[in-house]
């Protein structure tokens, strides 16, 4: 039942007090003008408001103003709001719910004795994290700004880079309790309408209590919820998001989360890092090749090692098989188990390294290197080749941080297949993986776009290699509406 | 969803049933064999009728690493059986582990056995899944195959032999042959296998007992019929067009003084063409050899046209004599077409071959050989002059 205000100030305040029973964070500040008897009350939530703004722009002017002439006029509230307080955003409302909502986001509500409505004053002061370099995506060359948790800051970071009226930002609220602000961001002239509409449709369908991070949204709107691979890209870097927007992708920003989703997301984007575009193209191409190699290494090395040593010993060159033979002497576990244990141990070390505080981090690496590396080999629990195999796998995994979660599972599945069927099993695994990757889509875009076909050769310039910018003059065929990068869209 | 799971299940079951490879074997559960020696072995038995039954005495060289120094060490094990396969499996009695033969590099067969025939051994190595067909085969020169792995060297004999055989194009005293190419030659009409010989010797330099690969065993079908010396083998290589970078040394008279010239063969091309002239059948061997002067024992002006062509002529004469003598020797004494002349005629003059095919054994012996040798000195290595010795 909605509560209705009347002209009595105490009655109005009591309405709030009843609503916020047992909530001590709400301040009811009663005050008076020095020349008049008129009573005012400012309601706000402690520590969500800017104290300086409050005293300088609300309390001081109202207390000291000469208001006697207008005191009894019916327009008095407008007079106060428009001529006395100096606040950039003012709104009046007699709706209780609206007032409460605004109160909670950090605005303050001014009641004046004799008026059955409240004025919403913008006294917002959200202390937010400053704009830092994101820890998860460090780069050597390129902008170091990262998004923070405030949606407006994040949008401003994008707006500063794309100065165009074509950049559209559409807000909505998701989360029945949290009422989280979420916005869709795209460049109208480049992004395809169908994709934008699809994103909006999927966002509107979300029905949940609360959204605390874009991760929630990701899971709701993804195409392949059970796939090991993501169909959405998430980043904390505004420059990366701008790059994606310029390619015709749609960004989803969520209040309270520093990571921003962009979609559609295709497989090769795992291998494209924003730094590729800030470096010389041949160097960037080399690095990209390394990433492709790392994908192969991190998923396949343990499986191939197990397959070769257990099923196809004749495929290993003689000197190599001799040293593996020597190293395997006296190891109690079958090599499949050995590999599996080592993968789990590696993941344990990695996960603990993330969860633990920075200061004990070095202890982890000492334990990892000495206990697992040295001592296990010395004690003949694990063979040296296995340490090397797992080491290569782990290091290669760090080249693809965005894919890390998927590769762990693929690695274990491949390993399992290889241990029961040898190289055949591994090949079956690869076939399965390819079938899966080629069958899924992200917002209507084939996931393996540009990997499989040379048909649209323009796109290949940014797939396996990073072609020089002057040569990469067209946008992707399926993703963007206007293809030519060089032509100014504003002039069309 | 259920459909998908069913599909995956069916896929996997099919895979598991159809995949032939179920040979799971931990690497440390096998013994890696690098070399195999086969001798014929007569069991000392009182029963007279069993004496004639041939048995195989198999010697293996098994590697394991001395981990402290990290140096390869090998063990030698022996076993016997009435078939090769039985002998190989019997090793479990002694060793506990099964032997793993896929990395076998060397197969040494004793001369005694080779003279009786090697079909059985080759058939086994070809049929067995573990062997690779590129195992090098060697025939012992009048000694036991099992003794070959017991030399004084510290490294693994099979590995060293493997290296030796791989470097045949640098020495010219043997031609390495593998299981597949022996079988290839054995099954072809007009082609007989030739396998390098190996023997154990006290080394001249430091008295160590060491094996030496050199010379060639000549086969007729699957039986060994004779040997070629190391010198003869070089000319065999010439005919077989296997000359790559072997040294060629010739004798030369420097103003009535006998001296040596060592030539390095830079490239060589031998073309063997069958010549049909009416009823007579012949083979022309054209050698086009480019050499560099490597050593001179006497002072000679190699920039001088006449002296150079003199050397060339001498070399040509040497090669020609070598080739002719070798072919005559093989024709007369062994009657084994190790040069593959018959196969050549079959490929190039098929009509003639059909006529002579049945009688090839006799015709080979009377085959006329003409040679056309051309040696050309191209370079003189790093110096254009000989060392000038002061004379008083």
From TrEMBL, chain A:
Name the source's superkingdom: Bacteria
Q: Does the keyword Transit peptide apply?
A: no
> Membrane-spanning regions, if any?
292-311, 331-349, 356-376, 382-400, 412-438
InterPro entries found in the cross-reference section: Spore_Ger, UPF0353/GerABKA_families
Q: Which UniProt keywords apply?
A: Membrane, Transmembrane, Transmembrane helix
Q: Which GO terms describe its cellular component?
A: membrane
Q: Which GO terms describe its biological process?
A: spore germination
Q: Does the keyword S-adenosyl-L-methionine apply?
A: no
* A Pfam short name: GerA
Stored PANTHER family: LEUCINE ZIPPER PROTEIN 4, SPORE GERMINATION PROTEIN
Q: Which family does it belong to?
A: Belongs to the GerABKA family.
Tell me what this protein is called: Spore germination protein
Organism classification = Bacteria, Bacillati, Bacillota, Clostridia, Lachnospirales
From TrEMBL, chain B:
Pfam families linked to this entry: Spore_GerAC (PF05504), Spore_GerAC_N (PF25198)
Q: Which GO terms describe its cellular component?
A: membrane
Compartments, record wording: Membrane
Species, as recorded: Vallitalea guaymasensis
The record's NCBIfam families line, in alphabetical order, gives: spore_ger_x_C
- Membrane topology value: Lipid-anchor
Which part of the chain is the Spore germination GerAC-like C-terminal domain? 215-380
The Swiss-Prot or TrEMBL record describes its family as follows:
Belongs to the GerABKC lipoprotein family.
Which PANTHER family would you find in this protein's record? SPORE GERMINATION PROTEIN B3
Residues annotated as domain Spore germination protein N-terminal: 23-199
Query: What name is this protein filed under?
Result: Ger(X)C family spore germination protein
Entry's Gene Ontology BP terms: spore germination
Q: Which UniProt keywords apply?
A: Germination, Lipoprotein, Membrane, Palmitate, Signal
Asked if the Swiss-Prot or TrEMBL record annotates the protein with the keyword ATP-binding, the reply is no
């Amino acid at each position: 039942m909605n509560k209705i205000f009347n002209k009595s100030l105490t009655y109005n305040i009591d309405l709030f007090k009843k609503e916020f029973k047992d909530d001590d964070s709400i301040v009811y500040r009663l005050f008076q003008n020095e020349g008049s008897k008129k009573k005012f009350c400012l309601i706000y939530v402690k520590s969500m408001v800017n104290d300086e703004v409050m005293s300088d722009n609300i309390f001081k002017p109202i207390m000291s103003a000469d208001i006697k002439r207008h005191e009894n006029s019916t327009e008095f509230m407008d007079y106060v709001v428009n001529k006395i307080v100096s606040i950039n955003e003012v709104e009046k409302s007699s709706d209780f719910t609206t007032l409460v909502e605004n109160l909670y986001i950090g605005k303050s509500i001014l009641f004046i004795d004799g008026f059955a409505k409240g004025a919403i004053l913008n006294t917002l002061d959200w202390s937010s994290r400053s704009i830092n370099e994101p820890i998860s995506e460090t780069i050597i060359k390129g902008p170091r700004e990262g998004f923070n948790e405030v949606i407006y800051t994040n949008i401003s970071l994008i707006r500063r880079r794309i100065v165009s009226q074509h950049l559209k930002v559409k807000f909505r609220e998701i989360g029945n309790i949290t009422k989280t602000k979420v916005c869709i961001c795209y460049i109208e002239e480049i992004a395809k309408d169908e994709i934008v509409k699809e994103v909006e449709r999927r966002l509107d369908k979300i029905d949940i209590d609360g959204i605390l991070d874009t991760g929630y949204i990701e899971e709701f709107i993804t195409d392949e919820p059970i796939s090991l691979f993501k169909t959405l890209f998430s980043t904390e870097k505004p420059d990366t998001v701008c790059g994606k927007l310029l390619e015709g992708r749609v960004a989803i920003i969520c209040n309270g989360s520093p990571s921003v989703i962009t979609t559609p997301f295709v497989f090769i984007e795992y291998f494209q890092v924003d730094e590729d575009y800030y470096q010389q193209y041949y160097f960037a191409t080399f690095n990209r090749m390394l990433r492709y190699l790392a994908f192969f290494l991190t998923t396949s090395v343990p499986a191939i090692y197990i397959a070769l040593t257990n099923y196809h010993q004749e495929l290993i060159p003689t000197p190599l098989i001799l040293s593996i033979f020597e190293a395997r002497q006296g190891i109690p576990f079958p090599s499949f188990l050995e590999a599996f244990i080592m993968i789990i141990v590696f993941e344990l070390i990695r996960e603990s390294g993330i969860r633990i505080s920075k200061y004990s981090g070095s202890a982890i690496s000492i334990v990892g290197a000495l206990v697992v590396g040295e001592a296990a080999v010395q004690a003949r629990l694990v063979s040296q080749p296995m340490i090397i195999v797992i080491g290569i796998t782990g290091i290669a995994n760090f080249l693809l941080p965005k894919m890390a979660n998927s590769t762990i599972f693929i690695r274990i599945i491949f390993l399992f297949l290889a241990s029961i069927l040898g190289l055949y099993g591994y090949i079956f695994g690869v076939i399965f993986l390819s079938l899966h990757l080629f069958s899924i889509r992200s917002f209507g875009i084939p996931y393996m776009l540009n990997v499989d076909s040379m048909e649209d050769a323009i796109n290949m310039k940014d797939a396996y290699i990073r072609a020089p910018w002057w040569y990469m003059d067209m946008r992707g065929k399926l993703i963007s509406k206007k293809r030519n990068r060089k032509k100014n869209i504003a002039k069309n | 969803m259920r459909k998908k799971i069913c599909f995956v299940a069916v896929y996997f079951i099919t895979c598991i049933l159809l995949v032939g490879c179920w040979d799971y074997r931990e690497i440390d559960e096998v013994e890696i064999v690098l070399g195999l020696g086969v001798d014929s072995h007569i069991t000392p038995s009182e029963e007279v009728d069993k004496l004639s039954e041939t048995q195989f005495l198999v010697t293996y060289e098994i590697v394991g690493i001395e981990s402290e120094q990290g140096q390869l060490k090998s063990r030698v094990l022996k076993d016997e059986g009435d078939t090769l396969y039985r002998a190989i499996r019997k090793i479990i009695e002694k060793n506990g582990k099964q032997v793993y033969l896929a990395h076998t590099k060397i197969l040494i067969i004793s001369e005694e056995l080779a003279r009786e025939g090697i079909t059985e051994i080759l058939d086994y190595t070809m049929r067995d899944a573990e062997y690779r067909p590129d195992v090098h085969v060697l025939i012992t020169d009048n000694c036991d195959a099992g003794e070959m792995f017991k030399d004084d060297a510290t490294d693994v004999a099979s590995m060293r032999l493997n290296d030796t055989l791989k470097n045949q194009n640098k020495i010219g005293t043997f031609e390495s042959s593998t299981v597949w190419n022996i079988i290839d030659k054995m099954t072809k009409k007009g082609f007989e296998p030739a396998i390098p010989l190996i023997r154990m010797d006290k080394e001249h330099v430091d008295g160590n007992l060491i094996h030496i690969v050199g010379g060639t065993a000549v086969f007729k079908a699957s039986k060994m019929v004779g040997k070629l010396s190391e010198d003869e083998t070089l000319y065999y290589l010439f005919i077989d067009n296997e000359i790559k970078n072997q040294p060629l040394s010739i004798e030369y008279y420097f103003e009535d003084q006998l001296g040596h010239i060592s030539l390095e063969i830079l490239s060589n091309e031998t073309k063997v063409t069958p010549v049909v002239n009416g009823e007579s059948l012949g083979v022309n061997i054209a050698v086009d050899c480019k050499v560099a002067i490597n050593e001179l024992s006497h002072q000679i002006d190699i920039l001088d046209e006449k002296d150079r062509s003199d050397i060339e002529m001498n070399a040509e004469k040497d090669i020609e004599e070598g080739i002719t003598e070798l072919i005559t020797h093989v024709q007369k004494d062994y009657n084994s077409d190790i040069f593959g002349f018959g196969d050549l005629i079959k490929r190039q003059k098929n009509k003639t071959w059909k006529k002579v095919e049945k009688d090839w054994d006799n015709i080979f012996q009377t085959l006329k050989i003409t040679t056309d040798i051309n040696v050309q000195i191209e370079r003189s290595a790093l110096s254009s002059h000989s060392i000038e010795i002061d004379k008083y």
